[in-house]
Amino acid sequence: MSNGFFSGSNPLFRLTGRVLDLVVLSFFFLLASLPVVTLGPAAAALYYSSVKCLRRGEGSPYRSFWASFRENLRPGIGATVILLIIAVALDALFVFLTMAAATGSTAWNVARWAFLVSLLLPAAMYTLTFPLLSRFTCTAGGLLANALRLTVRHLPAAVGAGILNAALVVLTLKTWFYGSVLLTPALGALAVSFLLEPVLRRYTPQAAEGEDIPWYLR
Predict the structure, then answer these.
(1) Which helix (H) or strand (E) holds 203?
(2) Helix, strand or coil, per DSSP, at residue 50
(3) pLDDT value at residue 9
(4) 15 versus 6: which is more confidently predicted?
(5) Which of 203, 183, 152, 156 is nearest to 27 (CA)?
(6) Domain residue spans in the chain?
(7) What is the mean pLDDT of the chain?
(8) Residue 85 burial (CB < 10 Å; 0-12/13-18/19+)?
(9) Is the model's pLDDT at 216 over the cut of 80?
């Protein structure tokens, strides 16, 4: 009976193992993101290891994370720097519109809300960029161009993923002192993957005859 309880097929043990994987991958993501400019490669590695190992059951999530991080480091840093500059510019514009709206002007208030709605597009693009990097090899410029192209082509899925990602970021910032930061990054990558994987699969080359089918096409 004890062998059955401690068996790897025990549902409780499988659940505990999955939760531990989520915590460790989230910790790896936070650790790899510390320099800030490596946020993109860390996000790509988190998405890759979460989908490959936790959803598909292929390989070790920990080894997969660091292998993906190293492989995508150079283009990921370039894309991260560009996106951070854009984010700073968008934040400055939002602050300006907020200050203008505080004067009581209806026109400025409408402009502020219109700007907030327009942020759905960059949020969707940001969310798609690094899952795209985790699957395909490209330069930083090519990565951002393709992310924008796929965002426009698959707007509902991309915007849905962007809203989900933004909600999880806000939740994490509000509850990090409860330890949620050690769970929500990997959970977010898994949740977003259900929206983005159907998009990425459409642009993934099929295996040639006689070749093994890649894990992301199985």
Answers:
(1) none
(2) helix
(3) 62
(4) 15
(5) 183
(6) 9-203
(7) 90
(8) exposed
(9) no
Rg of the chain's alpha carbons, rounded to an integer?
19
**Residue 117 CB partners (closer than 8 Å, separation 6+):** none
- In this structure, how many other beta carbons lie within 10 angstroms of the beta carbon of residue 176? 12
Cβ–Cβ under 8 Å, residues 34 and 41: no
- Please tell me which residue, 108 or 210, carries the higher pLDDT value: 108
Number of Cβ within a 10 Å radius of residue 49 = 30
* SS3 call for 177: helix
212 DSSP assignment:
P
The better pLDDT of the pair 211, 135 is held by 135
Sequence-separated contacts (24+) of 36-39 with Cβ below 8 Å: 36/80, 36/84, 37/77, 37/80, 37/81, 37/84, 38/69, 38/73, 38/76, 38/77, 38/80, 39/80, 39/84
